[in-house]
Specification:
heterodimer; A: 251 residues; mainly alpha; Ferritin; globular; B: alpha/beta; GMP Synthetase, Chain A, domain 3; three-stranded mixed sheet; 26% strand; PaaD-like (chain B); Phenylacetate-CoA oxygenase subunit PaaJ (chain B); FSCA_dom_sf (chain B); MIP18-like (chain B); Phenylacetate-CoA oxygenase subunit PaaC (chain A)
Chain lengths: 251, 160
């Protein structure tokens, strides 16, 4: 098993958590109601903790310190899927993104808790329980708002149609896909995506929302290979502002 | 030289900073105490939630407590080797949570399914006629619930 394949997998996991965690934190103090403000802030805190767990494992494998890795890379060195970097937009988009992403993440962690790579399995075993609460939150809000008023339904439908091609990009296969599958490290994106479609369809079926035929959509790929939207670099600049001014600062 | 039991007793003083009735022993985050023949002490800890900002604080408190009791050579190691789950909360800890007005997490066996997450007994009137309002509360480890009988909001220490 190549070290490179493991690191590629870890960077993808860690970067997704860091970037979406940062986006979620942009709702702090701005949420449409107190409970949702707290929910997105809590999920932000969880996700930063999750990214730290993976960056720490990367550090054990010879990569830089977690803070350096998080704050000193440029956009083209990030492996997050483009879905996570899109601006928070209106609450409808943030909710749909969170619903689509966390259902996938929960499946990923469940599967990785069985990984043949001990370090990854250990972290995934811990994190899969935490992500259940994110899924519970996303599913509950989508079920409620997806069958509430005409406005809430049409807003969520629009957000869903916009987000889905990006969400399919979560499952962009890496160049080490087969190697990771053969070594029992990871079950692979195709398998996760199939189960993800079952899970989100089951939730959406309880609402007035319509899931388009996913096979007819063109997935937005590139994120896993360092190709990003114009939105990522400004996010990184903002995130690293204090660290770049004074790397020893505590805040 | 102290024994492992004595060191565990010292750590009884260290409380969860956000739930000051709960010691770290009862919370279940101290996963091991080792004592070398030369007196070197290793305390192993594991976080409740990976992103919990109080963990660094708890670690510092553990170090302070060891120093206070004259232990000079020690290290406190934080890891996921023995990951925390809510079943690790002791009976004493569960009772302390109830007295504090927080519903303790429901013990569970095997896989934690979504139904258990939503289930909570009201710590004020013991009613089970309650509903989860939001899985996120004032700290990462607490969810918000409403009691349909005594009509009070209450918090639960999340099952994990």
């Amino acid at each position: 098993m190549q070290d490179l394949a493991i690191k590629d997998l870890l960077y993808k996991l860690a970067d997704d958590q860091l970037i979406l965690g940062h986006r979620n934190s942009e709702w702090t103090g701005m949420g449409p109601m107190l409970e949702e403000d707290i929910a997105f802030s809590s999920m932000a805190q969880d996700k930063l903790g999750h990214s730290l767990a993976f960056y720490s494992l990367l550090h054990e494998l010879g990569e830089g310190e977690p803070d350096t890795v998080a704050f000193m890379r440029n956009a083209d060195q990030f492996h997050n899927c483009q879905l996570t970097e899109l601006p928070i937009g209106e609450y409808d988009f943030s909710l749909i993104r969170h619903f689509l992403f966390d259902n996938a993440e929960s499946l990923r962690f469940e599967s990785l808790s069985q990984s043949s790579h001990e370090g990854i399995a250990r972290i995934a075993t811990k994190l899969k329980g935490e992500v259940k609460y994110h899924v519970l939150h996303g599913n509950t809000m989508v079920k409620q708002l997806g069958s509430a008023t005409e406005e809430s339904i049409s807003r969520l439908q629009q957000a869903l149609d916009y987000a889905l091609p990006y969400a399919l990009g979560i499952f962009e296969p890496s160049k080490y896909e087969q190697e990771l599958i053969d070594a029992g490290v990871y079950v692979g994106e195709t398998s996760i995506q199939a189960e993800w479609e079952n899970r989100i369809s089951a939730v959406l079926a309880k609402t007035s929302l319509k899931l388009p035929d996913l096979a007819s959509l063109t997935p937005v790929y590139g994120g896993r290979y360092g190709q990003h939207t114009e939105h990522l670099q400004p996010l990184l600049d903002e995130m690293a502002e204090v660290f770049k001014l004074d790397p020893t600062a505590e805040w | 030289m102290q024994t492992v039991e004595q060191i565990r007793e010292f750590l009884e003083e260290v409380k969860d900073p956000e739930i000051p009735v709960l010691s770290l022993n009862d919370l279940g985050v101290i996963t091991g105490i080792e004592l070398n023949p030369d007196g070197f002490v290793t305390v192993r800890m594991t976080p409740t939630f990976a992103g919990c900002p109080a963990m660094d604080y708890m670690r510092a408190e553990v170090e302070q407590s060891l120093r206070k009791h004259g232990i000079k050579a020690f290290e406190v190691v934080m890891s996921f080797d023995e990951p925390w789950n809510s079943n690790k909360l002791s009976e004493k800890g569960r009772q302390a949570l109830k007295d504090f007005g927080l519903a303790p997490p429901q013990p569970y066996q095997g896989i934690l399914d979504l139904e258990i997450l939503e289930y909570a007994t009201c710590p004020n009137c013991q009613s089970q006629n309650t509903e989860m309002r939001t899985p996120f509360g004032p700290t990462l480890c607490r969810s918000m619930h409403y009691c349909n009988d005594c009509r009070q909001m209450f918090e639960q220490f999340k099952p994990l």
